[in-house]
Amino acid sequence: MSPAVKNTEPDLNISFQDYLVLSKLVFDWADSYDAKDWDRLRSIIAPTLTVDYTKIGLKRWDDMPANEYMAMVTHPGFLGDATIKTQHLLGQTWWERISDTEVIGHHQLRAAHQVYTDVDLQEVKLRGHSHATNEHYYQKIDGVWKFAGLKPNVRWNELKFEEVFKGLD
C-alpha cells in the first residue's frame, strides 16, 4: 500500500453567492481607484489589511489599519494626484477558499496610467502602464465580505511607468 498523498491543489469551492459578491468587490476596488471614489473604497475595505509591495520594491505591512491604507492610496504622490487618470482593467480571475471567512482572489490586471500637465486634464504629460497578476485578500467580517489587502506581481511595465507617481513621503 502506498503512503497517502497530500492534496496540494487549492480549494476552489466557494458558493455561487460568494462568487457574485467577491466579483463585485474586486470590481468596486478597481473602479473606486479609477474614479478616485474614496468613500466607496473606504466602504469595502477591512479594518486591517495585508499590503505586500515587496515585488515592486517597497515593503510588506501585515496589519495595516484601514485609515493608513486610505492615507497611502489617496496620497498626492500616489493615486490621490489629481493629474493622474487610471484604469485598472481586470482579466481572468480564480478564487481560492482558505476558510469560511477568508478567500484569495488571483487576478490578471492591466493598470493604464495617464499623467496630465495640470488638473485641467487637457494636455497629456506622459503615459505608463503596468501588466501584473495580483493576489487580493478578502475577509468576511460580521457576515460581509471585505477587501483585506493585496500583493501585486508585476510582469512588466511599459512606456514611462516609473515616472507616473511622485512617491509617498
UniProtKB/TrEMBL annotation:
Active-site annotation: H88, H113
Positions with a binding annotation for substrate: Y33, Y53, N134
Molecular-function GO term, any one: scytalone dehydratase activity
Ranges for domain Scytalone dehydratase-like: 13-166
GO biological process: melanin metabolic process
UniProt keyword Lyase present: yes
Entry keywords, A to Z: Lyase
Entry similarity comment: Belongs to the scytalone dehydratase family.
Entry protein name: Scytalone dehydratase-like domain-containing protein
Native source organism of the sequence: Penicillium angulare
